[in-house]
Design goal:
This protein has 2 domains: 75 residues, Winged helix-like DNA-binding domain superfamily/Winged helix DNA-binding domain (Arc Repressor Mutant, subunit A), CATH 1.10.10; 129 residues, Endonuclease Chain A (Endonuclease, Chain A, 2-Layer Sandwich). It is 47% helix and 24% strand. The chain contains 9 helices and 10 strands.
Length: 237
C-alpha cells in the first residue's frame, strides 16, 4: 500500500520498494539490500543513486564500505514541491501555445425559440464588448415578445455596446431604439440577419419557426467583421 502511494507521487516501482526497505533495514550496504530484495546488485546501486539524487537517501562510508539510509519521510514533500515549481514555470509557455493554436471551427444549427434563447445567452456570456449586426429584422421581438426587453436591460447592465445595420423601412422598430447601440440604414430589407460578437457569428433566419447557424471560429468572425465595416461605411444615419 505504501509503495503504491509512493509511486503516485512520482517514484518508480523499484525506487518505492528500495526506499521502504531502507526505512526498515538501514543503514545497510547496497549488496546486502540487493540480497534482501532479491534483485540485481548493479540495479540496486542505480536505484540507490537515484534516491540519493532525489534527497530521499543518504550514504556514509564506514570501514571502506558504503552504507545507505533513508532520509526523513517528510523529505518526500520536497519532491512534490519541486514538481509544483517545475509545472508552474512552464504553465505560461503552455498557455501561450494554447492561445497560438488555430481554433477548430464549431458549427451548430439551433432552432425555434429555444435556439434564439441559446444565441442570446451565448451573447451575454461572451466577453465581447461590441455586438455587430446587419440585416436586422426585429423579428426576435415577435418570437420572444416579453423576454427581449429584459435581454436589452442585461446588455446595458453588462456595458456591452453595439452597431446595427438595417433597412430604412424598420426605423421605428424597437431594436433600433436600443440604448448603447448605434444604427445605420440601407434601402433593402433582408429576410435574415447576421450577428457577430467575439469569435462567434450567428446567421439568423426568421421564417415561421426561426433557425440559427451558429459558428464559433476567430477567422470566420474576423471575415464577417470586415464585411460589416465595409457595409457600415456605405450605410446612412
Amino acid at each position: 500500500m505504501m509503495e503504491a502511494t509512493l509511486e503516485e507521487i512520482g517514484l518508480s516501482r523499484m525506487e518505492a520498494k528500495v526506499y521502504v526497505s531502507l526505512l526498515k533495514e538501514g543503514p545497510i550496504t547496497g549488496g546486502n539490500l540487493a540480497r534482501i530484495l532479491t534483485i540485481d546488485r548493479s540495479h540496486t546501486y542505480n536505484i540507490l543513486k537515484n534516491l540519493v539524487d532525489k534527497g530521499l537517501a543518504s550514504q556514509v562510508i564506514k570501514e571502506k564500505k558504503t552504507y545507505f539510509s533513508a532520509t526523513q519521510p517528510k523529505n518526500l514533500l520536497n519532491q512534490i514541491h519541486k514538481k509544483e515549481l517545475v509545472i508552474k514555470s512552464i504553465i505560461p509557455k503552455l498557455e501561450e501555445l494554447e492561445k497560438s493554436k488555430s481554433k477548430q471551427m464549431s458549427v451548430q444549427i439551433l432552432e425555434g425559440k429555444d435556439g434564439l434563447r441559446a444565441v442570446l445567452n451565448l451573447l451575454l456570456q461572451s466577453k465581447s464588448k461590441e455586438i455587430l449586426a446587419y440585416g436586422g429584422t426585429g423579428k426576435s421581438y415577435s418570437f420572444l415578445e416579453y423576454e427581449m426587453p429584459h435581454f436589452a436591460k442585461k446588455i446595458i447592465s453588462k456595458k456591452m455596446f453595439g452597431r446595427i445595420i438595417t433597412s430604412e423601412k424598420l426605423r421605428e422598430e424597437p431594436f433600433t431604439k436600443l440604448l448603447n447601440f448605434n444604427v445605420k440604414y440601407i434601402p433593402h430589407l433582408t429576410p435574415s440577419s447576421t450577428m457577430i460578437f467575439g469569435d462567434k457569428v450567428s446567421i439568423n433566419i426568421f421564417e415561421e419557426s426561426p433557425s440559427f447557424i451558429f459558428i464559433d471560429n476567430r477567422s470566420v468572425a474576423d471575415s464577417y467583421r470586415e464585411y460589416f465595416e465595409f457595409m457600415w461605411s456605405q450605410a446612412k444615419n
